[in-house]
Amino acid sequence: MQITTSIGLRRAAALTAAALSLTATITLPVTAAHATGIHLLCTGQQSPTYSPPLTNTTQQTTVNITETYGTSLHCLDTAGIQSGSGTFTVSEPASCTSLTQPGTVSYFNTYTWNNGQSSTIHFTNVNVARLLDGTTQVIASGTVSSGFGLGDTAARTVTLPQLDPTLCSTTGVASQQGVATMTFISA
Known about the structure:
There is one protein chain. By secondary structure, the chain is mainly β. It has one domain (7-22, 38-185). It has 3 helices and 10 strands. The chain starts with 6 loop residues before the first helix and ends with a strand.
């Protein structure tokens, strides 16, 4: 487990913990979610693909990421959002045995929602940790810079499964799929 002293990451972790506790009580009406300052709470999946595939040797890797939300559970929100998606690409040195720790970043992701609205998030902090069970957790935080949730704090938590050591030492891991949670909390 990794401990960070970044105020932004602590806030993102606290926001994610709040979101996860609400996920456990997903039967809350939208008005109750709004009363707590949560404008959006969606659970879904993240599917990264790696080119070239991840091996035990660190190499420059292009990661194409697709996120889909609300596919099996509807989102809790204040605007009739039931599902949404977004895609983005990063290029970084990566391997099965190392973690890239971006820390302070500056990038924009746009998510399109089923009700025709979209949200662009300016992510400014990313923390990557390998957990004790071998999974990888990525927590990103920032601010909604346009669209639904404008001005809200956004937190995205993704947990990716443990990498297959046999694939890491041979042909490589070309893709993964993990659980993703997106939360917008009013500022």
